[in-house]
Amino acid sequence: MDPNNRGPEEYGHDGDGGTPRQRPPRDSLTPDFSQHAPALARTVQLVSGDFLLTVNPVDGSEIEVCPPAERPARPVKLTAAERAETERAARPPVPPGPAQPALPLLARQDEREQLVRLLARGRSVRLTGPAGSGRTRLLDLVAEDCSDLAPDGVVRLNGFGRTAGDLLHDLFHAVFSAPLYRPDRDELLTHVREIGAVVVLDDVEFGGAALDELLDATPECAFLLAATPDVPAPSAAAGVEEVLLGGLERSDGLELLEHAVGRALTEEESNWAGDLWFESEGLPLRFVQAGALLRQRDRLRAGTGAVDEFGVFEDTPPADAVPYELGDDVPLPSLGEAAAPAPLLAARLSASARATLRFAVALGGEVPHQAHLPALVGDTHADAALGELAACGLVSPVGSRYRLAAGVPAQLEAAGYADTTEADARSAAQHYSWWAGHPSVTPERVCAEADALLAALSVLGPASRPPAEGEESAGVHLARTAAPAFAAALHWSAWDRALRAGAEAARLAGDVAEEAYFHHELGVLALCGGQLDRARAELEASIGLRGALADKRGTVAGRRALALVADRSGTPIGLGPTAGEEVPDARDEESQSPAGGVPAAFPTLQPPSSPALVTHRSTPAATDKSGGGLKGLARRNLVASGAGALLVAVLGTVVTLGATSDNEPGTPSDRVGVNPSASQGVNDGSLGADRPAEDGGGEVGVVTSRPTDPGPDGTLGTSDDPTPTATPSVSRDPEDSASPSRPSSSKPPASTRPPTSPKPPTSSKPTTKPPTSSTPAPTPTDTGTPSTPTTTPTTTSPSTSDSASGPAPSAPTDTTASASQSGSTEQVI
What is the C-alpha R_g of the chain? Predict the structure, then answer.
């Protein structure tokens, strides 16, 4: 089945029209379902530190705190057989075709013995030499000599494009068995300190403090580093020995050239090789390429009857590359052609090899794996091109793959091989997108081609543009397909680069949905790495983009991750300008009481201009992108906290009054209902003030009875002041005396008689609950006329003053009217 054009059978549906698909015979017990479930998205669940990460390529990865049952067991070290298999997988593949003769390592015996002696004493060594000096070949031989020096053997790593942190994780997984587990920094350092091995690190690209960090984290390891002279040197405190690797002598160069050609050199060829040695400073790579030039010359001199070297097909070089007839005396290349031999060597190779070189130039020097060459080139035998390039010295091994040799990319670009860079990179991106998304391709295989995929993204990302209708951006599609594979294979540096390139490509292409996905993944990656500020910024950007698209599932996934960021950082979630509705799954956003208890008041809250009922509704303006989502959330949190504080103060006052009135009949607490009113003075501007209704005489319609001391006749009177004044009287209600926003009156209340015509209360409905005291309240005497307030002060009851002590918080804006209605109806006469 072609994975690029997936048939309906793969998804479990019959095709539209045509012959129905033939189903294989089934067991008789198997039920015959008419419809099959579609194939699910390939998700991978792994553990990163103390997080459980589910890589979801559809809506975005989900992250949560790892449950104890999901925690992996302590990693154990690999056995010797498992280490050998891991080392074999880290080597580059053998090119197809006839085996090429291995060239000897000439004039390197002294350096080889010196490196082995230093490593045997536990010293770390850095082998410094220019590109093409044979560093990789020397490392291979030294690694074989040191195979039994350390308890964990020899570990081969490659530092091309890798940081110190990446190499620590690579070392951990090369020694320990920990599938689908990426330890955090502290646990990683704990494990790598237990490793005792000879670590052969080729193509290292850092030095100084970064190298000190790597060496300090692995005190039981001896490192053999290989670097070029332009890489920063180790610090003086690192204690790394330095071994220089130079060029070959003239005689050694001529001997190497004879091994590469396979015959003795003529006098003319020896003189030509001497000039080449002087120009190249004795670099072995130049003599390998010069040997390929002489072999091609011998083939051209043999005539058209010669079959190609690999026996697969006969491919004559193009006519424009050979200015002479086959079979004629072919002159030696000039010194300039020998100094930059890549164009001449490529011109004499097969068409598939030249096409492979074009793809390698477009991918920044990365040579695609030989299994991909037939699909990229369009030739079923194109995999043999890798053998041609390796025999000519145009490619060199780098880790488990091949790259163009030193100096070859620049030489090919000058020869015109970079003219079709964007088209070749687009073709490679389309192929890798199809391949990486195929269900049969494992994440580890995708990671083996990570550098080629990232190189294609680096070319297509800046060149992205809004695609035509019905098309898809090649860069966005490649990043969308490869990023989940990088995450599942724990290659997080490649994951980060793919996400960043994909986000840039999606932005340039105008694909908002894909851009939101990449920002979400970047936020999850930052959260796994402990970068909380970056994680918050990326997740908020993703939530904003998905909110604009009404992507509910993606928004919920982002808010869950954002809630985890807030939990780790201890900072409340700021949903930003996209907060138009409540968060259903982020329960940590709810307001919480401060550590020191509920405050007595909120002086920063301003009273409303009107005591009218305030309700909160979700309006279209609340979901506007420019609305203050963070302000709305903070306001709701303050409202909830204020309402809770007010309720606690009111209930505490009622309980206190009821508890002090059990053994004292006729106490003022008998006048207090079970639900005291939250209303305050008339038109005093405080929170929760009920606006009174006025009768025809201009008197206040609602008169609140307040208990006073017994009068001269021994009866309990009430203090009523029907005359409206500018200064309100002192209230004996706990809410009135505890409110910090109400001004107190300097004139104490006087003992008065009850009014003759009591007005009905303005509250919604009277309470039906019985009073808290068992003793009924005495009935006041109706005199028929309202009493006149006097200036004689009365003694306040101790129980009343005690119960009113302590300030109470003012009611918040949104709950003022509701709190007033939930209170008890004022007692009236």
Answer: 42
Helix ranges restricted to H, 90-134? 109-120
Q: What percent of the chain has pLDDT over 90?
A: 49
Q: Which residues have CB under 8 Å from 482's CB, separation 6+? A: 432, 433, 436, 446, 450, 453, 457, 498
Taking the C-alpha atoms of 362, 366, 367 and 370 in order, what is their torsion angle to the nearest 10 degrees? -120
Give how far Cα 748 sits from Cα of 669, 707, 717, 740, Å.
19, 13, 15, 18
Contacts of 779 (CB under 8 A, 6+ apart): none
| Residue of 288, 225, 246, 250 lying closest to 130 (CA atoms) | 246
Q: Mind listing the domains of the chain with CATH numbers?
A: 80-101+108-247 (3.40.50.300), 591-691+799-829 (no CATH)
The answer to whether residues 92 and 367 touch, using CB atoms and an 8 Å cutoff, is no
* Model pTM above 0.70: no
CA distance 642 to 346: 80
Q: Quick one: tokens of 388?
A: 């041609």
Longest dimension (CA), the chain: 145
Q: What letter represents residue 4's amino acid? A: N
Return all residues near 331 (Cβ < 8 A) that are at least 6 apart: none
181 close to 173: Cβ distance less than 8 angstroms: no
DSSP 742-771: SPPPSSPP--BPPPSSPPPP-SSS---SPP
CA 567 to each of CA 68, 564, 587: distance values in angstroms, whole numbers, following the listed order: 18, 5, 11
**Per-residue pLDDT at 652:** 62
How many CB atoms sit inside 10 A of residue 741's CB? 18
Among residues 219, 222, 226, 218, which one has the least CA distance to residue 242?
226
What is the sign, positive or negative, of the torsion defined by CA atoms of 712, 713, 717, 719? negative
| CA–CA separation, 756 and 165 (whole Å) | 89
Cα(484)–Cα(470) distance, integer angstroms: 24
CA distance 377 to 797: 101
CA distances from 661 to 199, 671, 715, 777 (A): 85, 11, 18, 12
Task: Tell me which residue of 743, 732, 741, 733 sits closest to 811, measured CA to CA.
Answer: 741
DSSP string, 367-388: EPPTTTHHHHHT-TTGGGHHHH
Query: Position of tokens 């057989």?
Result: 81
Rounded distance between C-alpha atoms, residue 200 and residue 225, angstroms: 6
List beta partners, residue 177. 76
Torsions phi, psi for 195 (to 5 deg): -85, 130
pLDDT, tens digit, 9 for 90 and up, residues 546-603: 999 999 999 999 999 999 999 988 877 654 444 334 444 433 433 343 444 433 333 3
What does the DSSP assignment read for 203-269?
A: S----HHHHHHHHHH-TT-EEEEEE-TTSPPPPGGG--EEEE-----HHHHHHHHHHHHTSPPPHHH
* Token pair recorded at residue 449: 């081609």
Q: Is 735 within 8 Å of 677 (Cβ atoms)?
A: yes
Tokens representing 448?
A: 């083996």
What is the 3-state composition of the chain as percent helix, strand, coil, each rounded to the nearest 5? 40, 10, 50
Tracing tokens 């690029």 back to the chain, one arrives at 4
